[in-house]
Write a structure and sequence with these properties.
The protein is an all-alpha fold and 220 residues long. Helices cover 64% and strands 2% of the residues. The protein has one domain: DhaL domain (Serine Threonine Protein Phosphatase 5, Tetratricopeptide repeat), CATH 1.25.40.340. Bound molecules: magnesium ion. This is DhaL domain-containing protein.
């Protein structure tokens, strides 16, 4: 099985920055349907700093790179997203400490650790309509697969995030700002889930993995 190099991790983070920056307005508009409309701007503000600093960031090991990105998120991503994304990158970075390349199992463990950290931080449960409702099924799917074909894994986890958009669309949010409007959140997608799905779908496009999305938020 092939491993993932530090250069590939860097390239994928750079692609992610482009996705977040390009969708700044769209993600904020989605958040504005039930929340305070800051999600896109909060995330893009931080990822603009990541994009700018990425060429200079310590890349002696994948863990060190992710910990630096975690610090940028905590400092520059605004609103409730800063601690969530900062914690996610920090916990993934702790698992990748000292590693110069990643096995598939490392990736699965990094996501598992990121999820644990985000849960500990925000206390969200399944069905609370947060980005965890995309991350949990992605992690489950990754554990089912052996990772021998990373393109197949990417298509499969993009499908999980895509499905999570529609499966949670009609739920009432129980965490975050959207929970304060209760019923008004009940016919809008969660912007965090759409964010994860959009990032993964862009990875598919850049890496030449065929995927046809279902949710209308991915068919724009
Ligand atoms: Mg918001």
């Amino acid at each position: 099985m092939s491993t993932i190099s530090i250069d590939q991790v860097e390239k994928t983070i750079d692609i992610t920055c482009d996705t977040v920056i390009r969708n700044e307005k769209y993600f904020s508009d989605l958040d504005g349907l039930a929340g305070d409309g800051d999600f896109g701007t909060s995330l893009a503000t931080g990822f603009k700093v990541i994009k700018k600093e990425l060429p200079e960031i310590d890349k002696s090991a994948i863990g060190a790179m992710l910990l630096k990105i975690s610090m940028i998120c905590s400092k520059h991503v605004g609103g409730s997203s800063g601690p969530i994304w900062g914690t996610g990158f920090m916990r993934a970075g702790m698992v990748a400490k000292g590693l110069e390349e990643l096995t598939y199992q490392n990736l699965v463990d990094m996501l598992g650790s990121a999820i644990e950290g985000i849960v500990a931080r925000g206390g969200a449960k399944r069905g609370d309509k947060t980005l965890l409702d995309a991350l949990w099924p992605i992690h489950d799917k990754m554990q089912e697969m052996d990772g021998s074909d990373l393109g197949a894994v990417l298509a499969a986890i993009t499908a999980e995030a895509d499905k999570a958009i529609d499966e949670t669309r009609t739920l009432i949010a129980h965490r975050g700002r959207a929970s304060q409007v209760g019923q008004r959140s009940a016919d809008t997608p969660d912007p965090g889930i759409v964010g994860i799905a959009t990032i993964l779908y862009d990875w598919c496009k850049v890496y030449g993995v065929d995927y046809s999305p279902n949710a209308k938020e991915l068919n724009r």
